[in-house]
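Onboarding guide, step 5: your first structure request.
Type a short instruction followed by the sequence, for example:

Predict the 3D structure of this protein.
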Amino acid sequence: MAILLPFLAAAAAQGLPPAKALPPPESDAAAVLAPINSVFAAFERGDAAAMLRYVYPAGRVTATGTRANSSGLRQQSWTEFSQRLQLGAGFQERISDPAIEIDGDVAMVWAPFVVRVGGKVSNCGYDLFDLVRDNGTWKIMNVTFSSRTTDCPDQ
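The system replies with structure tokens like these:
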């Protein structure tokens, strides 16, 4: 044990490498991403009623960055947010390389996104979704996202 103490002290001083979580099983990851993809499809159609089927209406949509208000922060319930959807606006949001964490009936998805309107990049940033599984069905409780109009992919 005395031999290990200097080694442990040196390791602690240098810091330990970051933990690498095991990826969730593919079926669980697909199930968590399903309501997110369904919400994006509803955005594209401007279909508020469809969007609300995949979220908890009293949950929150929180935006930070250039697309938020003058304080840099905008918060709305999903119900309030759904009232902003417009048919035929040409809106498209896509995420890539999602990091998915699942523990029982709680999940988190962190992913970069790009929004296009009329085929042109409008803004980009990162989405953070938290989801809850109730009666075997995943729904989005909240989404928090950053937003910027510069340094976006495909600009």
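Each response can be followed by summary notes, for example: The chain is about 25% helix and 35% strand.
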